[in-house]
């Protein structure tokens, strides 16, 4: 199976007076068409791994491959362009522009990349996510779950190879969280996307095919076909170690 994303010996150190190592030699591969959750205790490096894998941050050392192209070998401009073409993003705080309608928010990344939105594609994605009747409304008129569905639609409409999701259910109630997680599974099953999701929630992680665990910036285990109970037990072991 082809790797959609591969990271090799990633190190990320921040210097805020005293150097802090967020990633300490992490290597991992994420196969195309799979859903991976990344988990770990607070400060384990999971969000840093996501940001480096997505090209939102540069590692201090190591290599990142997205679709077989080494992002870490490109300049900032080329990295931004490639990221816009190959990656979609879903964040905890939605990152929607309040002055734009639902549809305008969904097509914004395409316009920023200089691409003409395919109206048929936009309508199909909005329909799949139950947003057709909301297309002309502003985000302030939507619930939290609906806003996150807009963020998922925005991530899907550009047909990215990989969707990176950072705590996408962290601000949602249980029902809305389950709806968004089901949509991310749909992105894998029906749209053939690869999803890499950072989460602290064992229930959310159980929607993934595989859970990758981090602790102190290093890999600390992997769990296939996860259940909430198995994920919670592994996290408890990490915290207690």
TrEMBL record:
<dbReference type="GO" id="GO:0016887">
    <property type="term" value="F:ATP hydrolysis activity"/>
</dbReference>
<feature type="domain" description="ABC transporter">
    <location>
        <begin position="5"/>
        <end position="241"/>
    </location>
</feature>
<dbReference type="GO" id="GO:0098796">
    <property type="term" value="C:membrane protein complex"/>
</dbReference>
<keyword id="KW-0547">Nucleotide-binding</keyword>
<dbReference type="GO" id="GO:0005524">
    <property type="term" value="F:ATP binding"/>
</dbReference>
<dbReference type="Pfam" id="PF00005">
    <property type="entry name" value="ABC_tran"/>
</dbReference>
<dbReference type="InterPro" id="IPR027417">
    <property type="entry name" value="P-loop_NTPase"/>
</dbReference>
<protein>
    <submittedName>
        <fullName>ABC transporter ATP-binding protein</fullName>
    </submittedName>
</protein>
<dbReference type="GO" id="GO:0022857">
    <property type="term" value="F:transmembrane transporter activity"/>
</dbReference>
<dbReference type="InterPro" id="IPR017911">
    <property type="entry name" value="MacB-like_ATP-bd"/>
</dbReference>
<keyword id="KW-0813">Transport</keyword>
<dbReference type="InterPro" id="IPR017871">
    <property type="entry name" value="ABC_transporter-like_CS"/>
</dbReference>
<dbReference type="GO" id="GO:0005886">
    <property type="term" value="C:plasma membrane"/>
</dbReference>
<dbReference type="InterPro" id="IPR015854">
    <property type="entry name" value="ABC_transpr_LolD-like"/>
</dbReference>
<dbReference type="InterPro" id="IPR003439">
    <property type="entry name" value="ABC_transporter-like_ATP-bd"/>
</dbReference>
<keyword id="KW-0067">ATP-binding</keyword>
<dbReference type="InterPro" id="IPR003593">
    <property type="entry name" value="AAA+_ATPase"/>
</dbReference>
């Amino acid at each position: 199976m082809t790797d959609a994303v591969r990271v090799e010996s990633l190190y990320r150190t921040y210097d805020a007076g005293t150097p802090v190592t967020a990633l300490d030699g992490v290597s991992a591969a994420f196969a195309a068409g799979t859903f991976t959750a990344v988990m770990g205790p607070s400060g384990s490096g999971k969000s840093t791994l996501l940001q480096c894998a997505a090209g939102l941050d540069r590692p201090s050392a190591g290599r990142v491959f997205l679709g077989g192209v080494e992002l870490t070998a490109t300049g900032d401009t080329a990295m931004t362009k490639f990221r816009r073409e190959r990656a979609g993003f879903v964040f905890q705080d939605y990152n929607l522009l309040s002055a734009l309608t639902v549809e305008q928010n969904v097509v914004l990344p395409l316009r920023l990349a200089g691409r003409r939105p395919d109206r048929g594609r936009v309508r199909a994605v909005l329909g799949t996510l139950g947003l057709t009747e909301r297309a002309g409304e502003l985000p302030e008129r939507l619930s939290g779950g609906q806003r996150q569905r807009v963020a998922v639609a925005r991530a899907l409409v550009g047909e990215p190879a990989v969707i990176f999701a950072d705590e996408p259910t962290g601000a949602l109630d249980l029902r809305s969280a389950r709806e968004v997680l089901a949509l991310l599974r749909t992105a894998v099953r029906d749209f053939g996307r690869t999803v890499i999701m950072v989460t602290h929630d064992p229930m959310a992680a159980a929607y993934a095919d595989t859970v990758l665990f981090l602790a102190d910036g290093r890999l600390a285990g992997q769990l296939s076909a996860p259940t909430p109970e198995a994920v919670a037990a592994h996290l408890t072991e990490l915290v207690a170690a």
